[in-house]
Each structure stands twice: as C-alpha cells, then as structure tokens.
Amino acid sequence: MTPRPGGGGAASGRVDLAGLGFTDGADLLVRRALAGLPPGGRLHVSGRHPELRVHLGAWCRGAGHRLEDPEPDPGGSGAPPSDAAVAVVVKGRRDDDRWFGAVRAGSAHGVVDRPPGSWGLAARGALIEAGGPEVHFDVNEREVVWADAVARMYAHAASRQWDPATAVDWSSAAGLDPEIETAVVQLMTYLVENEQAALIVPARFLGRIHPHFREVVQLLSVQVADEARHMEVFNRRALLHRDRLGTSSAGGRASLLTLVEETDFSMASFLLSVLGEGSFVDLLAFLHTYAPDPVTRRIAWLAMQDERRHVAFGVAHLQRQAEQDPALLGRLRGAIERRHDALADTAGLNDDVFASLVVLAAGEWTPAAIAAGGERVRRLQHAMDDGRRRRLVRLGFPLDEAAELSALHTRNFM
Amino acid sequence: MSVPDALLMGAVAYDPKVVTIWEGFRRRLNATGVPFDYLLYSTYERQVEDLVAERIHAAWNSPLAWIRAERLAAAAGRTVTAELMRDTDRDLTSVVLVRADSPARTPADLAGATVAVGAVDSPQATLIPLAHLAEAGVEVKVRRFDVGVGLHGDHIGGERDAARALAAGEADAACVIDANQLLFTREGTLPPGSVRVLAQTERYDHCNMTVVDTAPRSLVDPFIAALRAMSYADAAVRPLLDLEGLTSWEPGRTDRYAALARAVDRFGFYGADGTVTAAEYRP
Ligand SMILES: [Fe+2]
Ligand SMILES: [Fe+2]
C-alpha cells in the first residue's frame, strides 16, 4: 500500500486482502494500511472473502471510519479487474484523536527529576494516551531514591540469588553440645525476627516509589526476596534439631518497631541499611567465624553477601542525596536521635542473645573460654561501631559527629 | 415539571454501565454550565410514555422507542424530534446467518426452516430481519430467545442465544446485527468459519436522542450543542464516549427508520396511535 494524493486532493491508498476475512485478521491489514493515511484519506479495499463487504462495514462503524462504494471505473466496460475495490474506507478522526495530547513517559534511557502521577504505571519511555488515572506515588523524587549505579546493582543482585534448598547442605547431623545448640537456636530466633523487619521496611516502600524509578523498585524487590530467604534458612536451622524456638524480648521488638514505623524513605533507608544492616554484616561475619556447625556457617555467609548489597544501595543513594541536599544530614541526625530517645527506656539487646553470642565465641563452658568469648563479642561490637562510623563519614558527617551518632544506634544492632 | 431548571433526560438501564455513562455526562455538562439531569427507566415503554406525558424533556431512545414516541406524540397532538445520534448508530445492517454447510443459497431456501432470533422487541435481531424475510415472501418458523424483554434488544443475550442455537444445530438460521457475527466469532460463541451470511437487510439507523416539542428550547439547545461539541480528542470525555460506544455525536436523522416501521406494522407490534399491540410482549 502506498499513500498517494488522490483525485479529490485527499491521500488515498489500496489494500488487497486476497481471501482473508475479518474473523481471521483482515482488520490488521486494513488498520495498517489506514495508518499511513490522514483523516479523510481513502483506502480502496479489495479481496475475495464472500462476507468482506458486510464485515468491513461493521468494522468501519465501530472503528470510526466511513464506508463508501467504489467509484465506477470511468469508461470501463465488462468484468471489473480482479483487484477491483470492493469498497472504499474513508478514514475517520478516531485514531488520531485518541493520541491527541499524548506524551512520552520520559525517556527509555534516563530518569527525570520528578515524574508526574499521570504517567502512572506506564513503562518508562512509553507513549501514553492522555486521560488515564492519576496514580499517587509519594516517593517520587529522583534525589530521594536514585543511585547512579542502581541498574548495575540490580543486575548484580539478580545474578546472586541462591536457592535455600540447594545452596546449603541441610543433611549435617546433630551432635553439638546441647547447650551450644541452644545458643544457636536462640541466635536463629533473633535473626528471624530481625529479617522479618528487614523485609517489611522495603516492602512497604515498594508501592510508594514511582515506577518511573524502575531499577530502584527492582532492586528493593530483590532485597525483599533476599530477606524472605534469610527468614527461611534461619528458621530452618533453628528447627533442624529442635522443635522449639528461643526467646523474643520486648526490647528487641520495640527496636524493630521504630524501624518499621519510619515512613520517610530516606530515614528508613538510613536506619535500616546504613546502620542496622551494616551492623548485621559484622554480626553475620562473626557467626560465620564462630559457627559451631557447617549449616550455621554457610547460611551466615550467604546472608552476609546479600546484606552487603543492601548496605551498598542505602549508602549510595543517601550519599548522592546528601551531596544535593545539605539539609539531609541534619534530618538523618534527627532520625537517629529520635529513635534513641524512643528506645531509651527499653532493655536493648535480648540478654539471651548476648549470652548466646558469648557461648558461641567461647565454644565451651570453662571460665577461660567464656572470658575469651566475651572479649570476642566486645570486639564484634567495636567492629560494628567502626563500620557505622565509616559509613556515616561517607555520607558526609564529620568524624566526631559520626562517632557520637554511631554510639546512639540501637543496642539491638538492627 | 418539578425540576424546571435542568434538562431532564430518560435513559434505560439495560446495563450497570448506563449509570457510569450518564453520571459522567451529567458532571461534565453541569461543570460546563449546561444544566442536565437524568432519570433511569427499566424499560423503553415507560420511558416514551413519560416523554410524551412531558415528565421528561428528552429520551435516549432505541429505534423502536423512537417509532412509538412518534406515534404516541402524534396521537396526543404533539411532535417529537430526533435531535442527536451516535456516529456508530448510522447505517447498521442485520444479517441472516446459516451454518457454513447449509444447503441454503438464497433467502427463499429458508422457507419452512427454523430461524433463531433475539428478544421479541429487538429491532436488529428480530423485527427487521424477520420483516426482511417476510417481504421476500419467505415464511419461516421463528425460534425466539426472549432475554431482556423491554430493553428493545439492548441486552445482547437473546442474540447470542440465537447464534448458539444455530451453531448447535437447533435452528437452521439466526438473525444478528452485522457486527455481532464478528463479535460472536471472536468470543468463541461461533467457531471460526462455521457460519456464513445468507442475507443482509437494508441499512437502518439505531438509537437517537428524542425530544418532545414542549421541552423548552432554552434547555434543549445548550444540551444538544454541548454533546455535539464533545471531541474524541478530549481526554476528559473520551472514556465516556468509549463506554457509550461512539466517536462523535452526530445530528439526528429520521429517514432510516422505515424498515423498522414496516416491521412494526407487519407484526402488529404497536398500533398507529402507539398502543402496545404485540402479542407475547411483557416488558
Ligand atoms: Fe537479611
Ligand atoms: Fe537486608
């Protein structure tokens, strides 16, 4: 079909449908041919399907086009040529009018600072028909969510997903000292509780982040999936040789509640990833070192790799945001202070958890071993503090303020 | 008229979407300074009676309701006008379908055969195509599918049942609106290639916005003008136009209701004064 100026000044075209009928896709060919014509353009349609004229008429009515009889062949006589038009479709305005005022939802190749709600759920870069619903995604500023490396971070996270069923050899036999096993079960109980909070926090933001920032949503989705696996493996280890979990302290749960209740994306990301998950990387490294059995060692290592990514994104986007918004550091400081005040009257880390860490690092119940275990846990706490201070400095806090703020972090670690 | 300050239009609630459509138009019209309200009816018969009795100014009428409105108005010494119609309601046809392997080649071959049709009051799936066969001198046995009686065929159920009866071999032919052969094939009611068109009726028009002559033009004219001005390019009204199934509101015309009027007289559906005379019609 080649559009060309017709006799009446309007463009015209021609399409031959051969034996194709409207129940078998003739509308696709007609639509394609009409796409090249302006409203008012005339499309000569020929074809052999016995019901072509009936169906073409019905189709045109619904599609906003008009159907006319073909002009008689001037000076023609006898049988019409085999490709003679059955009818002429006069193109209506409907197709063009539908796309009047349509805009692209940004570009496929980059993000804008503040995507409007009218872009809604359209793919980034798609041509969007005007008039759809306004969707309110309140986390909608590039400055707040974006990190330059987020696409690479997502790809890396996706490539590092592991299957709890096969990544861990669950067949390891029982045989630990019963009190060591009890300590392991207690630590796993604590970890599951913390992983649940770490899952809920990004999950709550997923529905609030504008989908224009697709890679951020993807990365956080994988993070949620990571936490789901962590919950699974820690719970499974807890119940590997026992049928009961350990304890959950009121202070620990209070600490996690302040995390879950934080509704500001930057503040939540700061408290969860930069401070909490950052501390957890050290905790998991500790468990990896002092694990009394291969399953515990393995799952601590697997979770630690995932947590490193969670920390990396939190630091990356907050670092970027702090560079652009000098007031951010003050707000982050406020968040950590508020949380400290809220938790001031709570007990902090569950005593059973602390004792279990010491027992694990001690390995046995002799006074000398317990003393060594206690020293190792103190070193862990120092390592956590060092790490928090380093990350706070990366966000832009001066050294002394970083030290002060790190000390205010929850005693629950997360 | 208890609400003299707004044009009051009747519409038949043949589907829940009717509320969405006319509520949407009501908001749009009122927001642009055109006073408009609507009343919903469960059947067209009460709607046209109320129109001619001046309980409403305008009625969004089926073609059959238009014919009755004309006759009732004439009997009461009044007139009604078709002010407006959808572009998609112009020049419809109905088709008589037979199975692809049917021996029938012309309408005459259906003499004595069983023809499945829609509801008793469906212009497109019953009255017009049956009259088309009768005018060709073909006498058939009618198998009627009375779904949504009183809705003048707006409910597609009877037509679909007629198509099913044809596909199942319970009827020799079925009458449907031309576009519905495509629809029924796409949705799977008719297996692809299982039926063919044996006959096609003359072109006819469908719904129109009927206005009674006593309605104040000060209310009617802005209403009609505002609907006519609605553009498919306007994203705010496009969803309503899509829902109501049109691209543009066109001027009303009354020269293409003749086939239906002949059918109404042939089958005695309404009397010349608009009385309902159809047997077996219980709206
Ligand atoms: Fe985790
Ligand atoms: Fe995490």
From TrEMBL, chain A:
Name recorded for this polypeptide: Para-aminobenzoate N-oxygenase AurF
Organism: Allonocardiopsis opalescens
Molecular function (Gene Ontology), one example: oxidoreductase activity
Highest taxon in the source lineage: Bacteria
Signal peptide: none
TrEMBL record, chain B:
Gene3D superfamilies given in the database record: Periplasmic binding protein-like II (3.40.190.10)
A Pfam family matched in the record: Phosphonate-bd
Domain of life: Bacteria
PANTHER family registered for this protein in UniProt: PHOSPHONATES-BINDING PERIPLASMIC PROTEIN (PTHR35841:SF1)
UniProt-recorded name of the protein: ABC-type phosphate/phosphonate transport system substrate-binding protein
